Amino acid sequence: MTPSEPDLILLDGKIVTLDDDSRIVGALAAKDGRIVALGEDRDIEARAGQGTKVLRLDGKTVIPGIIDSHCHPDGAASRVINWHDLSPSRIQSRDALLARIDDATKDLDVGGWFFGYRLNENKSGGWPSLAELDAASNGMPLFILRTDGHLGLVNSAGFAALGIDRETADPPFGAFNRDPDTGELTGLVRETAVHLFIDHAQSVDTSESQAEGLRIVFDDYLSHGITSVYNSLTCSKAISAYQLMKADGSLKLRVGIIGSGREEGLVESLIASGIRSGFGDDWVKVVAVEWCPDCSTSGRTAAYYEPYIGDKALGEPEHNTGMLLYDLDDLTARATAAHKAGLLVCIEGVGDRGIDFALDAIEAALKAYPVDDHRMRVEHCCYVTPPILERIKRLGVVDSSATGFMYELGDAYLANRGEAAMQHMWPHRALIDAGIPAPGHSDSYICTPNPFTAMWAMVNRQSDTGSSLDTPGAPSQAVTVEEALRAYTILGAYSGREETIKGSLEVGKLADLAVLDRDLMTIPANDIPNVEVDMTVVGGAVMYVRDE
Q1: Structural domains in the chain, sorted by start
Q2: Which of 167, 256, 296, 393 is spaced 20 to 30 A from 444 at the CA atom?
């Protein structure tokens, strides 16, 4: 191969560049991981040399690689090998859940645990009782993490293993649900109480085991056209695992580290080391740091000004407006220190009270150390009322939108907040019209990493069951297909200060792209969830090919 020959050429495609002019071209050439030419077949093919890999796409559509700007591959890596996947695709009823527990615990060794994740009680028959869990688990300790990561189920043996009984005080910013009549534990645990059990389960994790799980998780991501992830609340073991994977050549997509404010001392260590956002390279880079003071709407813990409606879980507060997991002064001090040190600050806010809480901390940090182009983010940022929208715009904050929730959790949002609230839930039409950057993300594996199901929900304003996510009589918050795609590409890159190198297909940018089995830009809107990725290319190298 001569110095001028491309490494890869794509011909006869419909290449959606998403540049400023929304150009669509037929061919692309890449060298040394970056795009060197775009145009028509004849001109690009003429650049090929003996060492050039030439792929003819037969008219297939190419899009920029998907950027999932808030997801949890490290958390998934801890679970994909040894935990039980209890998602609705596998568990459709309470009886099926109890049968799965019974079967899995019959042959457990003494001291072994049953760990499960992705349970969605709304789609799997409701919450089992503590007595049902005890009967099904054959005396073995059990912990099941709800799909949102904010609630969990524990059996009596699980409580006993950690020394918890009815007399145990609730941890700060958490709760062991209790029967209001008897005071007995119900088996349901919330927020920081959940993390007692997660920490116990993950105490055996190592950087090597994290890397093993991450390889599995990233193969799944690649099958959905994802070429970059921003790992929300990245733990220190995962930071080490990413470096191991890069060194041994098993890292197949790009990772932005959002350091976890939940892991005591991690953010402080980054600050003390002088590490700023942008530290690293195009494969592994520190993007931001993050704290999670707000919670789950589908799990009825996110902070709202108005109480939840609908069915309550046993032990749920009677007048429930959700909960916050930090004191404001404490969170503000943490965020201000990170902002001063040059680390982009991300704070989770889901309900309107939670978003205002996040914005209070962000506004205080900006007042202490003003920065024009700061790009601080409110994560998930679901219930954006008009006053909050105006505040986000005034502060120059990025609305890091949990669009994945719309598809899988939309029905729970309707049940817990009501139709009227949908007018301001994930209001992407209003956000775009106001000029507020609002990248979309999956929060996987809270929800599937598949971006096309979320794009379908953004375009159609429906949940996976077809329930409307618009408010009757109010303007729709639906967006176009291109606007939805931009939320998962160029706006994702913008949220990590990487829009100059990724997010669109332009000369000089990274050759990260996905080849689709149908034309996303012209298919009927209801066909969007059926889009399959035929090939994923990262840095000009083919990292995934769909097995027909």
Answers
A1: 68-73+207-504 (3.20.20.140), 84-202 (3.10.310.70)
A2: 393
